[in-house]
Amino acid sequence: MKSIFYKYKIGSKLMSLGLLLVLLLVWHGSTTVGKFDPTGKTDDEVMLMEMNGEIIPDPYNDGQYINNPEKSTTFPGPLKVVEKIKQEFSNPFHRKGTNDHGIGWLILYTLTVFAIGYLAASLVGVLLGVFIGLSRTLFEVLNPFLQVLKPISPVAWMPLLLYTVQDGKSVAVLVVFLASLWPTVANTAFGVSNIRNDYLRVARLLQFGWFRRFFTVILPGAAPSIVSGLRISFVSALVAIVPAEMLLGELGVGYNIWMEWNNLDIAGVMFAVLVFGAMGFILDSLLDRFARGVSFVE
Amino acid sequence: MSNNSEASHLNHSAADRKLAMKVDHVTKIFPVLKGSGAKTGDTFCVFKDVKFDVREGEFITMVGHSGCGKSTLLNIMAGFDKPSTGGIIVDGKEVTEPGLDRMVVFQSFALMPWLTCFDNVRVAVRSAHPDWSGPELDEHTQKYIDMMGLTGSEKKRPALLSGGMRQRVGIARAFCVNPKVLLLDEPFAQIDALTRGVIQEEMMAMWQRSNATVFMVTHDVDEAILLSDRIALMSNGPEAELAEIIDVNIPRPRTRQQMIESPEYSRVRNHILRFLISHQKQPGGSTEPAGKALTDSADESTNETPQKAEV
Ligand SMILES: Nc1ncnc2c1ncn2[C@@H]1O[C@H](COP(=O)(O)OP(=O)(O)OP(=O)(O)O)[C@@H](O)[C@H]1O
Ligand SMILES: [Mg+2]
Predict the structure, then answer these.
(1) Pick from B108, B124, B157: which is nearest to A206 by CB?
(2) Which residue, A96, A149, B2, B199, shows the most beta carbons closer than 10 Å to its own?
(3) Range of the domain at B71
């Protein structure tokens, strides 16, 4: 019993859950519509407010008022967001016109853009990194370029990309690509250039051809580094995709955030933000599983 | 492999054996690294004009003080490094690249940590026999795994094994391709003393079964005597030279006990110790005769039980 408790880290999980509960309660408490306090206001003023619909009579206490929840500008509470979640997931794949897509479509769209850009960047990044890591000369030639390109925010490329590529989805893919390219290149190059000389000697000794050397020695030898690069790239891509979709205004969860903001639907914004959190969490745990598969102990 | 005659390992026939590898007047000069007060262009000659033959089926060992260039020479023989002048000849051809005909057992084991023990050996078998099918590769690999007493550890990663077990994998990997010459650079230096003795004997058995030719570098004089047909002594660097090669005429198969009791053992051991002591802390001194006192003190140990003698 006790071992199971520790194995599944039940203690810490319970604490996480408790913390979540506390946060939800604080959120709920601070966003519930409060009683209207008439002190300092004349009866006329109160009457005017009622007529304007700013306050309504308290259904539970005669002669008292509460703030009108319809008119209130307060932040939406957790219940409202839960309601929004239920509503969105009740029909995730509806499609009414160009602007009203179900959340399922939006997630699918964002995931496709993300997957294409990220996977392409991973492939190119690993190959480029391997070449740079293997050749001192190539490293010295390309390093200045990398140093200049690396700090440029991928979103900064968008006008140029829009000008040249035009198609919105392709631009989003390219932004993700650019966001996830450099960390993979840099980490792969580092990993490859730090493979122990012993292993490379064994490869020479055993007369490995390029292909076998690449798959038997270089790739697995640099794998821990490559994976940490892929993870940094992953976060970087996830960060970049939001403003890219917002600016492009085509589709996707990032675009949805902006749409909901335009509709002044704060609960909708929060819902979309949460969707991003959930997507990142799920994708990251997949990546984590992959990382554990390729790591090794010296 | 099939030629398994013990007689071929007797020392008397050593001189008649065919040539396996020729170390032909090899000199190695390194550029001096900047920073230590040296000018660029300064050079540093590790050893010069080293020449000897490695004969087929023999076990030849090189002993010398640290820094005399033993590893450098072995790397040149393997093809990892190039000689400044001279060359290494195998099968009438000069060595330019590493190859399967000169397998190396590394002091650091050099096993790939992401492969299992079995696969670490199998990659070598596959290189040597690219035309073999999967089951053929597996069978040959298993044979060498079993021979080195690794049965049961096939699926383990090297990180899970002791140093001794790892070097067994290293030895299996080297022997399994049946190389013309095996090159061992202090293969037992990183293994604890008790295991070391066991693995030395295992390797000796492996060598006799496979009729292999071995060139080994070591610091351990007893190890050299136990395993070798001939022992090459290097003088001190810089500009080290191959001072002499001595025969070890202890009959085979050898055991440690039998070796210790053999008068030949005392003779060879004293000879080597005297050589090493006389070359202590004498940079550049290669052939000066040893002082009388040193010679005597070395002689005294003749009839005692051997103590660990390491350079
Ligand atoms: N790449 C290199 N560049 C410059 N000097 C080197 C290089 N490699 C080795 N040396 C020098 O050559 C000399 C011989 O080195 P080597 O490793 O061959 O000695 P060794 O006899 O194997 O010593 P040990 O017994 O300690 O292993 C040393 O002084 C070393 O500093
Ligand atoms: Mg050495």
Answers:
(1) B124
(2) B199
(3) 1-101+181-188+215-311
